[in-house]
Amino acid sequence: MKLEVKQDSQEKKLVFLDIDGTLIDMETGILPDSTKTAIKKARENGHKVFICSGRCKAIVPSYILETGFDGMVCSAGAYVEAEGKVIFHQPLLAEDLKEIVDFLNDKKIGFFLEANERLYTLPEYKRMFWEREELANRSEREDFKQFFQNIQEIRIEDAIGRNDINKLTFFSMKNCVDDIKNQLADKFMVITSSMEKAAVTGGEISAKTITKAEGIRMVLDHYNMGKEATLAIGDSMNDKEMIQFAQVGIAMGNAIDAIKEVADDITAEVMGDGIYKSFLKYGLLD
Predict the structure, then answer these.
(1) Predicted pLDDT of residue 118
(2) For residues 261, 262, 267 and 268, what is the CA-based torsion angle, rounded to 10 degrees?
(3) Any idea which architecture 14-90+211-281 has in CATH?
(4) Domain residues of the chain, as ranges?
(5) Are 39 and 66 spatial neighbours (Cβ–Cβ below 8 Å)?
(6) Could you give the CA distance from residue 119 to residue 100 in angstroms, rounded to a whole number?
(7) Architecture field, domain 94-207
(8) Beta strands 167-172; 85-89: pairing state
(9) Alpha helical stretches, state H, 47-141
(10) How does pLDDT run across 150-160, given as a tens digit for each residue?
(11) DSSP-derived secondary structure for 194-247
(12) Which whole number is the average pLDDT over 173-180?
C-alpha cells in the first residue's frame, strides 16, 4: 500500500469510480443505495464524479447513469466525456485492429469489438460467450440484458476493416494468456483476468498508450486542474494505473491483492458501503 495522503476536505475534487466490483456488486449487479446517496451528496457539495470503466459507453447500464455523473471515462481511457461533451476519443488504428483480430480468430479465442454505440462479434463467439457457465445465474440482470441487446453479429471480413473500435475484450475456455502476451503485449496494452468458476480466461486489448490514468489526464486538462484534486476507486487490474496516478487511490475491500498493494487506502466491499465510507472519510460528504 502507498503512504497515506492527507486531503483538505474544502478543496473540490474530481472523483473517478470503476463500475464492476466498485459501483456495483460483481455477483448481483446491485448498485447500493448508500453509493447513490454518496454520489448525489458529493456532487451537491461541488465535487465532480466520473465513471471510469473498461466498459464501452454502449454497455454502461442505464440504472447506473440515472444516479447522475459529471462525465465518464470509458473503454479503459479511449473515450472521455465531460458534462456531455466528448473531450477525447482514440479508436484503434484499422491496421492494428486487423492484426489483433487475425491473431485471435486464428487461435479461436473469442472476442468483442467495442465501439461507443455497440459491440461486434462473430456468431460463434457470441455463442461461446453465452455458454459460459457463470452467465446462467446472471441472464436476468439488467446490466447483462443491456449488454446482449447491444451486440451485433458480423462477418470476419467486416470486423477487420472497422475504424470505430476503441478496444477488444477476449475470452476463452482455455488458458490463452501466454499466447496473447507473447504475440501482442509488446505493441498493445494487454490486461488479463481469470474467471475461475467458469474456467474462463479473459481480458482486454487496447492501444499501448490507452489507460484509465490517461483518461483522467484528459479530464484534468479539460478543467485546468491538477492531479492533487483527484481521487480514484477501483478493484481490478485495469484500475491499477488510475489508482497509482490519482492523488488518493483507493482499493475496494473486494479488490484483488495487486490493487490493494498499490493503493493509498482500502475501503469496505461494495455491499459493505465501501463507496459511502470512502467519500465520508475523505471529506466529500461534509
Answers:
(1) 94
(2) -40
(3) 3-Layer(aba) Sandwich (3.40)
(4) 14-90+211-281, 94-207
(5) no
(6) 16
(7) 2-Layer Sandwich (3.30)
(8) unpaired
(9) 62-65, 94-106, 123-130
(10) 999 999 998 98
(11) EEGGGTEEEEEEEETT--HHHHHHHHHHHHT--GGGEEEEE-SGGGHHHHHHSS
(12) 85
pLDDT, tens only, 95-149? 999 999 999 999 999 999 999 999 999 999 988 887 765 555 566 678 878 888 8
Q: Is the pLDDT of residue 201 over 60?
A: yes
- Please tell me whether residue 56 adopts helix, strand or coil conformation: coil
DSSP label at 24? B
Question: Residue 31 to residues 15, 34, 39, 64: CA-CA distances in angstroms?
Answer: 17, 9, 12, 7
Q: Which amino acid is at 119?
A: L
C-alpha 28/C-alpha 33 separation (Å) is 14
Residue 221 and residue 219: Cα distance in Å, rounded? 5
Sign of CA dihedral 18, 21, 26, 29: negative
**pLDDT for the residue numbered 200:** 61
Amino acid at 225: M
Say how far apart CA 173 and CA 68 lie, in whole Å.
Answer: 37
